[in-house]
Amino acid sequence: MSNPPFGFGLPDPDDSGGNDRDPDKSSGSGGQQPPGGPEAFNQLGQMLSQLGQMLSQAGSSTGPVNYDLAKQIAEQRLAGTGGSSLGFSSSEKSGETAVSEAAHLAELWLDAATILPAGANNTVAWTARDWVSKTLPTWQRLCDPVAKQVSGAWVQALPDEAKQAAGPLLSMVGQMGGMAFGSQLGNALAELASEVLTSSEVGLPLGPDNTSALLPANIEKFTEGLERPSSEVLVFIAAREAAHQRLFAHVPWLRQRLLATVEEFASGISVDTSALEQLAGQVDPTNPASIEEAMSSGLLEPKTTPEQQAALSRLETLLALVEGWVDVVVAEAVGDRLPGADALRETLRRRRATGGPAEQTFATLVGLELRPRRMRAASALWKLVGDRHGAKVRDGIWSHPDLLPTAEDLDDPMEFADRLGDGPEGVESFDPMAELERTERAERQSGESGPQESGDKDSGNDRDENGPDDGPDDGPDDGKGGTKA
To answer: Given its phi and psi angles, is residue 311 left (phi above 0), alpha (psi -120 to 50 degrees) or beta?
Structure first.
């Protein structure tokens, strides 16, 4: 976890989304002493006024996160950055038309590359604000476990006498916590909405079922500097989104397992409440700088448990398999049809591997880096299986989760391909019970070796003496399904 989940850090005051700030006063004040005298009272009045506005805008949202406030803040931030623009508009066609035509062409090409039929009933063009509103229900599912753990830790840390004395005030504290989390979520969603290219770019099915969604304005920004026609880039991105939707629609267990694994990780977050007492001794109420220093000291950062590490390993492997499959299928679908397909493929690989703004923001929200660290290894495995056994066998492996390659299989894709057999029946002769027994044996051996060893082996870091599979210095693979990382 490169960033602690929301609630453990202080939001950037210059990134709060407020439009009533004087830009001249938001910079150049570093190192100055806190104001005193009338200026201090003036700032206190402003703070109380802002608090009143937040309370009045809180809406009827209940729970650990105020999602009404999150949506308001995200939409306010996007309003001043073109968040309502579709992009790709010209005298010949609108953004919706460009997206529809690109998606139609991408689906035709994908039909020849995979046995999975089209998974989207409709393809839509979203603005950044559309992305916020359409994906918010999924974010609620992902963020609630984190917020519950964080807010509960503060209440549990109070002595029983303090809890009894606080009484009804505890509900007010909960409301304030929900507003604080909602504010951070709103700012994070605005950041994500200004960067993501499709509804599935972070690797999770965030949007509605059976819906391919592209953000043409963001794709247009992404195209700048690539030296490729915008229409070509749009078709390539549409093919990736369509491939994701085919997988999510026709592998019924996949969507639930991805989201449930993130929930499992988030639910395991724990805070060392004994650190609160130590934190209180470091804070000088008259000095705001001491509060910021104490909060950033790391005392309240969550600790990763062995259970969380196991969930993270499963999630990273599954994400790598999804992204690797999409990478291979799209490459086969576009083939030589798009002259710049290879360059676009490598650009998007590096965008995912190095962790762009989308992944960094997700890490801030949920407390984990949502990156398929072993995507190149997974891509090589799927390419090898497809070359040796055909698309029917390759795609048929998704029919049951027990058939999927494991983290160990990513280390030795040739051995996995050999287990599929050499006959034309391929996966039909693949014994699910034997695979299940093999997986259970591996899990037992992993448990006997201890949490630390298991975490080092399966954490998804994919490190050997040659370094990680993914990274900005990786060269493109040879496209032949080699077994070397």
So the answer is: alpha
Q: How far apart are CA 66 and CA 178, in angstroms?
A: 5
Structure-token pair, residue 177: 């916590």
Residues 144 and 277 sit within 8 Å (Cβ to Cβ): no
- Asked if 265 contacts 312 with a C-beta cutoff of 8 angstroms, the reply is yes
Residue 211 phi, psi dihedral angles, 5° rounding: -130, 120
Nearest 5°: phi and psi at 213? -130, 130
Residue type, 122: N
Phi, psi angles (nearest 5°) of residue 481: 70, 35
**pTM: predicted TM-score of the whole model, two decimal places:** 0.71
What is d(CA 322, CA 253) in angstroms, rounded to the nearest whole number? Answer: 13
Task: Give the tens place of pLDDT for each residue, 37-87.
Answer: 566 656 666 655 555 555 555 545 567 888 999 999 999 999 877 666 676
Residue 63 Cα to chain centre, angstroms: 22
Do 417 and 384 form a contact (C-beta atoms < 8 A)? Answer: yes
- Per-residue pLDDT reduced to its tens digit, 451-484: 444 344 343 344 343 344 444 444 444 444 443 3
CA 397 – CA 149 distance, rounded (Å): 37
Pairing relationship of beta strands 467-468 and 211-214 according to DSSP bridges: unpaired
- CA–CA separation, 311 vs 260, rounded Å? 10
Q: Which residue has the tokens 């402003």?
A: 46
Residue type, 264: E
Q: Return d(Cα 19, Cα 76) in angstroms, integer.
A: 8
Total Cβ atoms within 10 A of residue 286 = 7
Give just the sign of the alpha carbon dihedral 369, 374, 376, 378: negative
The three-point CA angle 349-238-332 to 5° equals 60
Backbone angles phi, psi at 212, to 5 degrees: -90, 130
